[in-house]
Amino acid sequence: MLHPSAPPTVIDGTPDNTPSATRISQAVGDQGYGAYADVYGTQANDFPVGRVALCVTDLGRGRDLVKAAAKADPGADPTLVDLYVSRYAHRELAKAIDKVFGKKLAFPLYSASATADASGIRLTTSAAGARSTSFRHTLERAVGGIPVVLEQGEPAISLTG
Description:
Layout: E1 10-11, E2 14-15, H1 19-32, E3 40-45, E4 52-56, H2 59-72, E5 81-85, H3 90-100, E6 109-114, E7 121-125, H4 127-131, H5 133-142, E8 148-152
Parallel strand pairs: 4-5, 7-8
Antiparallel strand pairs: 1-2, 3-4, 6-7
Helix pairs in contact: 1-2
């Protein structure tokens, strides 16, 4: 009989999800989606290994976010967090995504996310939609000028009957 095991901390010789970075990352995320949603952009755990890259729209409030995370979880090490400036807060990007989904558009939208650095939104669409500069411009106008990256994708497959 097979028993579940903990996820590996090394994949192909490269550390992955180091416990100390994961702990502060979780504490930062809790604050970033809560009291600091106005400045929290995104974060990358173990980037580089053992560190957390935190993107915020304001470095002063970002430092406060890290302090709040350390206060909320005294065992989390705030010195592992590196701050970077992001153009948009995650909350703002999520609102932008909500503005375009469900609208009647020239091409379908399949999925959406914030870009890795919180500088805009990434949308998947049909091949023709991904090639259309005018479609991208239409979407950018709809989201108040936030940059839009279009990629060719496929419709989601429903996992329920």
